[in-house]
Amino acid sequence: MFTGIVEEKGTVESVVDLGDALRVRIAADDVLADSALGASISVNGICLTVADRGDSWFEADVMAETMRRTSLSQATAGTAVNLERAARVDSRLGGHIVQGHVDGTGVIASIEPSDQWTVMRIDVPADLTAYMVEKGSITVDGVSLTIVSVTDDHFTISLIPTTLAETNLGTRQVGDVVNIEVDVLAKYVEKLMQR
After folding, report:
1. Rg of the chain over CA atoms, in angstroms?
2. What pTM did the predictor assign?
3. Among 57, 85, 113, which residue terminates a domain?
């Protein structure tokens, strides 16, 4: 479980193709402070397990389902990634409840900067927008954000300077693929209503 408050930007050092899986090595500092083998770290919103680690890096295995649903299969050496350790139950939530279970991907359709914020439009499939509401929570590449507007095929978010500076969203370009996790509460409500 995570909060969507990114602790640091890491960098992919290597991606090893294992056929039906990947082994990624990520350079990091802060998230390694108390992360032992088996710890969960959110990498661009994907909950990954530390399989090996050194003083300034960790490795994680990425299974086929994760490669299919996320943008991690497109990562190469040098790719910037947002990192967050699992949430502690004795601290403030900060963002919203984020599982690290990416629902799918979206494509950045436009970026409109202004003096104090940037509006980003992200195109997504309708099966994802069904779980989105204006002013609701959304996770984009592991960042907890508030939806400004939503239609059948896209949503918009406003990014403050801190978010642009402290996450990889500040270097994203039109056409980039981002990981999307919708608010889990909406999925549970839908399931209950179907019963």
Report:
1. 16
2. 0.94
3. 85
